Amino acid sequence: MMTTATPLAPEAPRLLDAGESGLVIEFGDAIDEDVNRRVIALAAALEALCLPGLREVVPTYRSALVLFDPLLLPRHELRAAVLELATQDHAAEATGTVWRVPVLYGGAHGVDLDAVARLHGFTTDEVIGLHSGANYRVYMIGFAPGFAYLGGLPEPIHTSRRTDPRLKTPPRSISIGGRQAAISPPLEIPSGWHLLGQTPVRSYDPARTERPFLFAAGDTIRFVPIAAAEYDALCRAAEQGALIAEAEAA
Fold first, then answer.
1. Which of 68, 69, 79 is nearest to 26 (CA)?
2. Of 72, 194, 203, 250, whose CB neighbour count within 10 A is largest?
3. CA atoms within 13 A on the CB side of 95
4. Residues 6+ positions from 109 with CB-CB distance below 8 Å
5. Nearest to 27, CA basis, from 40, 8, 45
6. Could you tell me which residues are beta bridge partners of residue 102?
7. Strands (E), 106-250
């Protein structure tokens, strides 16, 4: 006689107070796609409730920060709503956009590409092939406006962060650090990550009426190598407000 296993209820998250108007919903302690999927799905479900006093839900790698007005939304009511949502499996509902992001690798646009290649015993073309051949998950947006933290970097090019971080790195840098990859916003920012290239894509543009923040947690990124002439042309188009990155159906 066959028996059907009863699905296990999702494990309840850990709830941590963050001041008078913040609540952290913690799902795990590792970089894990399933954990991140639960974070993003619950954040979306919580926002969909439109609770009075709920100001913002910020998903991260393994937790979500909820900002709220305690005069309109008592903490115990928020905690109850979170725990009720956590008993439901929303992960299957979470979908994101798949983006194709052009990159000019190496040279002045990616000053660490050669060093990364030498470190791992690859040619620069092999590093470019590995980096551009993977699908990356946007785990979170943070640190700087539009800075996208990406998981999915191929293990052969996992690279410890620099021991001497730079105070300024070029805008729109494509970089790697440890087992992570990243897309920088169109701003000069400090970084200890290794710079492989630059993209004409502006992940953040406050003047853009459509999607000022281009990427969102849960999206997928695919990098596409391009030549210098195409890069320059796309940069000019981006200055006119073009998104440049192409979206695919997830």
1. 79
2. 203
3. 6
4. 170, 197, 198, 231
5. 40
6. 224
7. 135-141, 148-151, 166-169, 173-177, 180-183, 189-191, 194-198, 220-225, 246-248
For the question of whether the overall pTM of this predicted structure is more than 0.85, the answer is yes
Phi and psi angles of residue 94, each rounded to the nearest 5 degrees, phi first: -80, 125
Return d(Cα 117, Cα 227) in angstroms, integer. Answer: 19
- Cβ(196)–Cβ(151) below 8 Å: no
Tens of pLDDT along 84-129? 998 887 655 567 899 999 999 999 999 999 999 999 999 999 999 9
Rounded alpha-carbon distances, angstroms, from residue 45 to 84, 87, 168? 11, 12, 38
Q: Are 62 and 30 in contact (CB under 8 A)?
A: yes
| Residue given tokens 């030498």 in the structure block | 118
Query: Residues 50-80: pLDDT tens digits?
Result: 999 999 999 999 999 999 999 999 999 999 9
How many beta carbons lie within 10 A of that of residue 37, not counting itself? Answer: 19
Angle at 128 between CA 123 and CA 130, to 5 degrees: 95
In whole angstroms, give the CA distance from residue 158 to residue 110: 17
**Cβ-contact 205, 241 below 8 angstroms:** yes
